[in-house]
Amino acid sequence: MKKITLYIIALLTISCASIQRGEHWKNPEVTEFNPKNVLVVGVTPDLDARSNFEFVLVQELNKRNINAIQSTVVFEKLFQDATKTEAEIEAKINTLLTEGFETVLVSAVKGVQENESRSGASPQFDYSLQRFLGGYLASRDDYFSQEDYKKYQVFYVETTIYSLQKDEEKSLVWLDSYNIINPENIAAMTDEYVKKIIKSMEKEKLIPKKK
């Protein structure tokens, strides 16, 4: 009982977070990674959202003495569909290498989940609660009023880092995933998301900390 109580306290602590980290992986064969020239790719058909995300992340990388550039500057019409991104990167590898890029960072929405809050709480808290209680809330439909139901969306986003090699080959260095819950202010969400990506990359020693 004590463990459950402590878990609920922890849940309440993080329940206001609109971005929650999911699965992550680093290639165990990569012992040293020092990116010098990075192409930052935000995959979305919304050019404004893509440009804003790429700009914010590029600024953070530049502050760490990493030469990074937005894909919207180099390949504006590419990287709008997550299902095509890898093929597009592979088709452009030799071009990217010629331009001096040895690393590509890609962030893409991989899925959208439609959720319904039965608790009347905020989407952020409800999402955490549903993950903790599983199907219990669904089994208590009789307890909640239909007026309590609130619909919201959860976006599953993956960020990956590829190391480029000649002859159209690439190797996956790192993968990080996040659940973005009910984003309303895109600009604020972008800033928060970039901060989390940067923090994760620093922790994995993929990039240096800002001096």
Describe this structure in words.
With 211 residues, the chain is α/β, with parallel strands linked by helices. The protein has a single domain, classed as Rossmann fold. It contains six helices and six strands; from the N terminus they run H-E-E-H-E-H-H-E-H-E-E-H. The chain has a six-stranded mixed sheet. Helix 2 (47-62) packs parallel to helix 6.
Number of separate structural domains: 1
End-to-end Cα distance: 45 Å
Biggest β-sheet: strands ordered side by side in the sheet = 1-6-5-4-2-3
Strand content: 25-35%
> Could you give the order of the helices and strands?
HEEHEHHEHEEH
Briefly note the structural class of the backbone. Answer: alpha/beta
* CATH domain class: Alpha Beta
- Overall 3D shape: globular
**Main sheet record:** 6 strands, mixed
Query: How many individual β-strands?
Result: 6
Instruction: Tell me, rounded to a whole number, the average pLDDT.
Output: 76
Write a brief caption for the model.
By secondary structure, the chain is of the alpha/beta class.
Keywords:
Rossmann fold; 6-stranded mixed beta sheet; disordered N terminus; 211 residues
What is the topology?
Blueprint: H1 2-14, E1 19-26, E2 37-43, H2 47-62, E3 67-70, H3 71-74, H4 85-98, E4 103-117, H5 123-133, E5 150-165, E6 169-181, H6 186-203
Parallel strand pairs: 2-3, 2-4
Antiparallel strand pairs: 1-6, 4-5, 5-6
